[in-house]
Specification:
The protein is built from five helices and ten strands. With 211 residues, the protein is an alpha+beta fold. It has two domains: 92 residues, Outer membrane lipoprotein wza fold like; 65 residues, wza like domain (wza like fold), CATH 3.30.1950. It has a five-stranded mixed sheet with strand order 7-6-10-8-9, with no helix packed on it. The protein has a three-stranded antiparallel sheet with strand order 2-1-5, covered by helices on one side. The chain has a two-stranded antiparallel ribbon with strand order 3-4. A hairpin with a 7-residue loop joins strand 1 and strand 2. The radius of gyration is 27 Å and the shape is elongated.
Length: 211
């Protein structure tokens, strides 16, 4: 009987030890920026036109219908002979082909070229910076953009910022993830390993320091 009681105590002790390990490991886990995101920038992609962009519409041999226009807040443009054509979310080439189709009713075989001269980009692709930035704002995403580029654009952080508690909120496969970033290490210590790539649609949240 004593042997059975001793074995039971030993079994309970082992189980309790495993439970403590599991709880400790679960409590210590924190979302971190994946190592792959630090090493590899996002793949090259075509620029998408967004509201606020300025586009130059050139129709070959038809200067009377060529002009520079701004993309309206509703994402559409209006040019001579073409009214309320959706431009937002399209590449310059796609928009040129759509204008050619619309002009084909009035001009024989129109050839259209689109040049984007003012860049803002679609809302879904902008980088938003909120919290303790010197100039919180939304930024147009540029190919190869990094955390340092974002901080330069917003003028750095305020004296009240808790830079090493900042996070990037990123949409991954339809789910939001919080990824830790180290702004103080990057700005104050010059730690280049903290200069991670950003992706279209990222939200950089810079909290206030507790003291």
């Amino acid at each position: 009987m004593k042997v059975l009681f001793h074995d039971l105590l030993k079994l309970l002790g082992t189980a309790l030890g495993c439970l403590v390990i599991l709880v400790a490991s679960g409590c210590s886990s924190a979302p971190q920026l994946p190592a792959s995101a630090e090493a590899a920038p996002s793949a090259p992609r075509d620029y998408l036109i967004g509201p606020g962009d300025t586009v130059s519409v050139t129709v070959w041999r038809n200067p009377e219908v060529s002009m520079s226009v701004s993309v309206r807040p509703d994402g559409k443009i209006t040019t001579p002979l073409v009214e309320d054509l959706t431009a937002s979310g399209k590449t310059p080439t796609q928009l040129a082909r759509d204008i050619e189709k619309a002009l084909a009713k009035f001009i024989q075989q129109p050839v259209v070229t689109i040049i984007v001269t003012g860049f803002v980009g679609p809302y879904s692709e902008q980088i938003r910076v909120i919290g303790q930035a010197a100039k919180p704002q939304a930024l147009p995403y540029r190919q190869g953009m990094s955390l340092m580029d974002v901080l330069i654009a917003v003028g750095g952080v305020t004296e009240f910022a808790a830079g090493n508690r900042a996070n990037i909120i990123r949409n991954v496969d339809g789910k939001q993830q919080q990824l830790a970033v180290r702004l103080n290490d990057l700005i104050r210590d010059g730690d280049i390993s903290a200069n991670v790539p950003v992706q279209p649609g990222d939200i950089l949240v810079i909290p206030e320091s507790y003291f």
